Each structure stands twice: as C-alpha cells, then as structure tokens.
Amino acid sequence: MAARTPASESDAEAMVSAVLTASRLLVAVSARSLAAVEDALTLPQFRMLVVLDTRGALSLSQLAAELGVQPSTAMRMLDRLEAVHMVMRGHQPTDRRTSVISLTATGRRTVHEATEHRRSQIAGIVDAMPPGQRRHLIRALQAFTEAGGEPSVTDGTQRHVGW
Questions:
Q1: What gap in Å lies between CA 55 and CA 127, rounded to an integer?
Q2: What region, left, alpha or beta, does residue 130 occupy, with left being phi > 0 and alpha being psi -120 to 50 degrees?
Q3: Which of 138, 136, 161 is nearest to 151 (CA)?
C-alpha cells in the first residue's frame, strides 16, 4: 500500500466532502420522493419496505439483519407498517412456527411510486449536468459503490433501484 502524501490526504478530504454533499442531496431527493407518495412514512420505514420488495418475504431476524438494526427496532417498525397495511405477517410454508413478513399490494405500490418519483428527480439533476461530466460521474459512482460493496442494480441481484 502506498504511503499517503499531504496532497493525497487533501484529495481524499475533498472527495469525502463532495460525497457528503452529494449524499445530502440524494437524501433530500429520497425524502421528497417519499413525501410525494406517502407523507406519513419515515425513511427507515421506507427502507424496510424496499428490503422486502427486493429480497421477498423474510423472518423478523432476517429483516433486522438486512436493515442493520436490533430485532426489537425492526418489530416496532413492522408494527407501524402493519397498522397502515403496508406489510403483513404470515407463516413459512415449510415451518408454520416461523413467521415471515411480506409486502402488501399497498406497500409494493408505495415502493414503486416513490422510486419512480426519485428516478424522475435524479434524471432532472443529471440532465442539468454538462454532458462530458456525466461519463465521469458514472465511472466514479460505479467505483464508489463497488468499494462500498453495494451490488449494482444492473447485475441482476436487484429488480429495481428501490432505495
């Protein structure tokens, strides 16, 4: 591994600042997109819906692990989402003792509509960029997400960009 120089540390800090600023924009776009569809949902609750949409029915412990939260936190989120008919609890077909959580049609529609709103807003931002910089952005974002271990939405592991 190469030693870091003051110039590379400065470059790294500039990159971190740029990514933090971009993440602030993306969170704002996500929040506006969600509010356009369902103003009572929080972003963490929406994330739960997205996980269920992309991964399918999961047990509470699987869902909590996917979200990186404690099962008790996932249970509280689940209770709220069940109350507004976004998710439902059922049983594993092969083991009736194991309950599973899945999306309802309302939950699935919410995920898809919010995603389309977000896609439209992001497209507008990208359209405002100079065309030559778009290619650089694609390469930089691909490298960034790869370094972070996030699967590409085009690699077949996810059906759509839900979160």
A1: 31
A2: beta
A3: 161
Residue at token pair 């309302």: 106
> How far is the C-alpha of 136 from the C-alpha of 153, rounded, in Å?
19
In the prediction, which pLDDT does 118 show? 93
pLDDT at 107: 96
What value, to the nearest 5°, has the Cα angle with vertex 155 and ends 134 and 150? 75
What band does 157 get if pLDDT is binned at 50, 70 and 90? Answer: very low
> Looking at beta carbons, which pairs linking 153-158 to residues 24 or more positions away fall under 8 Å?
158/54
Please identify, in words, the CATH class of the domain defined by 30-130.
Answer: mainly alpha
Query: What is the C-alpha end-to-end distance of the chain, expressed in Å?
Result: 34
Is residue 27 a contact partner of residue 43, using CB atoms and an 8 Å limit? yes
Report in angstroms the alpha-carbon separations of 120 from 21, 107, 108, 127, 129.
20, 20, 19, 10, 15
Amino acid type, 15 = M
Q: In the numeric block, which tokens belong to residue 10? A: 């400065």
